[in-house]
Amino acid sequence: MTSSYGGAPHVSRRMSRIPSAAIGSGATTTTGSTNPRTTELAATTPATIVILDRSMIEFLFRDRTSSAGVVRIFDRIRREGPVERQLCGMATTSALSIAARRLLIVCDIGQTSRDERTRALRWVRGLAHRIGYECSVNGLHGLATWYTVVVAGTDRAHAARSVVEWYRSGQLP
């Protein structure tokens, strides 16, 4: 997987302990140097990959209060807004900088409850749509967006290989 993305910017944690996210674009190695083999394969369809790890999903959707439902909803909304704005901004900037044609959001929802999983999927779908919209408004038309989830029991190495294969395939709708 390190051959398909790198140089992940850091998400600011100043908005109440926000977990980090990895966003990568282009074909670079973890050192930031261009990987010629991957560059040749993906030269025609640049892509941006956003990885939301389990800690990010738990931060956003895990219920940390024993209060009434309304308090839980406002607590979750308070966390979601700043994270969504930062991720959208970073992914949009990344996609615009390389004129990406594709965007993939990988979300690890393993070990979450059914309700948390449902909220996370809805949020990720909305995030993909918002990033596509922001890119379009900023002049990058035709960005194809995908999202995929990693569920409990999924072999992480297999999931990573799948992302690399998606990147290398240059698949467009």
Write the layout of secondary structure elements.
Elements: E1 22-25, H1 36-42, E2 47-52, H2 54-61, H3 69-98, E3 102-108, H4 114-137, E4 144-150, H5 156-169
Helix pairs in contact: 2-4, 3-4
Biased composition (Low complexity): 20-34
Region (Disordered): 1-40
Describe the protein's architecture and organization.
The chain has a single domain (22-169), classed as Rossmann fold, CATH 3.40.50. It has helices at 36-42, 54-61, 69-98, 114-137, 156-169, and strands spanning 22-25, 47-52, 102-108, 144-150. Helix 2 (54-61) packs across helix 4 (114-137). Helices cover 48% and strands 14% of the residues. Helix 4 (114-137) links the parallel strand 3 (102-108) and strand 4 (144-150). It has a four-stranded mixed sheet with strand order 1-2-3-4, sandwiched between helices. Mean pLDDT is 75; it is low at 1-20, 25-33 and 35-39. It has five helices and four strands. It is of the alpha/beta class and 173 residues long. The longest helix has 30 residues, at 69-98.
